[in-house]
Amino acid sequence: MSVTFAQVQNRVRSHLLGYAKDQEQFTSLAISMAPGDTTFTVDASTTPNLSRGTCQIDDELILVKSLDPTSGLVTVMAGTNGRGREGTTAVAHGVNALVTNAPTMPNIRMQEAINDTLLGTYPHLVVFKTTNITKLAPQLEYAMPADALDVWYVNLQLVGPSKVWQPAMNYRFNPLADPTTFVTGKSIELLDGVVPGRQMRVVYAAAVGTLVNPTDDFFTVTGLPERCVDMIVFGTVARLLPAYEAARLQQRAIESTQRSALVPPQSAARTAQYYMSLYQQRLAEERDRMFTEVPNFQSYNGS
Hints:
This protein is of the alpha+beta class and 303 residues long. The chain has helices at residues 5-17, 107-119, 218-222, 229-240, 242-248, 253-260, 267-293, 297-300, and strands spanning 25-28, 39-41, 53-57, 60-67, 73-76, 98-101, 127-134, 141-143, 150-157, 165-167, 171-174, 187-190, 199-206. 29% of the residues lie in helices and 22% in strands.
């Protein structure tokens, strides 16, 4: 079963807010909305769920100036300047799109943290890709794909009916190759003796991909197996939880005193440490499994 970017976000939200979703207040659009609109209409029966301040429609953050509780008409603060706030983009929204009042953790922040966690898996985890190079008689250095970060191993096609691909022993990856000679700026020197016309198969390491669209498939885009979803969720939650501690610092002294008996100071930071330990444990497990499933020539020989 495939897992999409939106589903990963939902898992993160469940860990951050609890399965009751922290009782955020919602309404929905009664009329579709264009990117340049400075007013929008919500379901009048749920208008009390919306208030002045920040609201979220789909992934866009919008500043609310005022609202008519009878008609459900909402006016955006500062005109179009109130659209696409906090790094989001003003886009069209359809009828029945959910409107979240004062979102505890905006979608844009979760999306950024998910991708930061994915990028942070390198060099512990990599995505393996393959490129085939045809041996040319006078040539020793060949271009590598732009996404190559390291070479895992190289196999050389032998002449004859054995169909054996011999591991290459003499090669060097150059991540800073002359771009005037190799357009990607990356190359590999293959110094083993190979019969011209035979294939040289290079298995290289690339970074884990990042997710963009809600429908992006986790495995297809990131290159990680779906069993890694929980690992990314743990790492993302660990990144986001300290934001709760920062919000706590903004409380008045008397409010902080009243809450301290129920929610002790540093509780969010300690919870973040717990999730980070879960993430690091899963990362170590996946790294061990990576070497087992795709051994390079050195590890295959036990060195």
